[in-house]
UniProtKB/TrEMBL annotation:
The lineage of its organism: Bacteria, Pseudomonadati, Pseudomonadota, Betaproteobacteria, Neisseriales. SUPFAM superfamilies: Flavoproteins. GO terms for molecular function: electron transfer activity; FMN binding; NAD(P)H dehydrogenase (quinone) activity. Keywords: Oxidoreductase. It comes from the Bacteria. It holds the Pfam family Flavodoxin_2. Signal peptide: none annotated. InterPro entries: Flavodoxin_fold (IPR003680), Flavoprotein-like_sf (IPR029039), KefG/KefF (IPR046980). This is Flavodoxin-like protein. Residues 3-169 form the Flavodoxin-like fold domain. The gene is ywrO.
Length: 183
């Protein structure tokens, strides 16, 4: 069973992340979704509750939109509050050891912007290095990020974004099925 940490600060208005979550919910997979922006609108994350959720699952998917080349603030707050010394790292901090860490990211801009010669100057995988290090530091098994471009409603039509999200989420579902079989 997979845990999805949904970290979209305005999920009710999301097109791409909502489509991804809907596809996951309709996939037949046994998943738990925790919408941390809704659970903790004041950013006061219940670390004990979130740690218990992490312990119930072998795979953790971090679902969020790329904001200014990074994760939304609520996800950073989650990492700061939940992945604590003695739980996720440090002396006795091996509770997440061997669990799968799967970033799942929607990227508003087109792919051409995320090249060395593009507007962003970096590839999405390069922007994910802090996530990769977080996984390593917590002894989790980092899985290359699932992501796709072209999700900004300012640049693309709703139907196109939903179609793109549904097509790409099939790959995420296949990954989760394969990880579930390995467990």
């Amino acid at each position: 069973m997979a845990l999805v940490i949904l970290a979209h600060p305005d999920f009710q208005h999301s097109v791409a992340n909502r489509a991804v979550v809907n596809c996951l919910q309709n996939s037949g997979l046994n998943i738990e979704i925790r919408d941390i922006a809704t659970l903790y609108p004041d950013y006061r994350i219940d670390a004990a509750a979130e740690q218990q959720a992490l312990l119930r699952h072998e795979t953790v998917v971090f679902q969020y939109p790329l904001y200014w080349y990074n994760m939304p603030a609520i996800l950073k707050q989650y990492f700061d509050n939940v992945l604590t010394y003695g739980f996720a790292y440090g002396t006795g901090g091996d509770r997440l050891k061997g669990k799968n860490f799967v970033p799942s990211i929607t990227v508003g801009a087109p792919e051409r912007d995320y090249r060395a010669d593009g507007e962003a100057h970096f590839r999405v995988l390069e922007l994910c290095k802090p996530l990769e290090q977080t996984a390593y530091y917590t002894q989790m098994r980092y899985i290359d990020p699932f992501y796709f471009h072209g999700t900004s409603p300012a640049l693309y039509g709703r139907e196109e974004i939903v179609r793109r999200a549904e097509e790409n989420t099939e790959r995420l579902v296949a990954l989760l099925l394969s990880l579930d079989k390995q467990a």
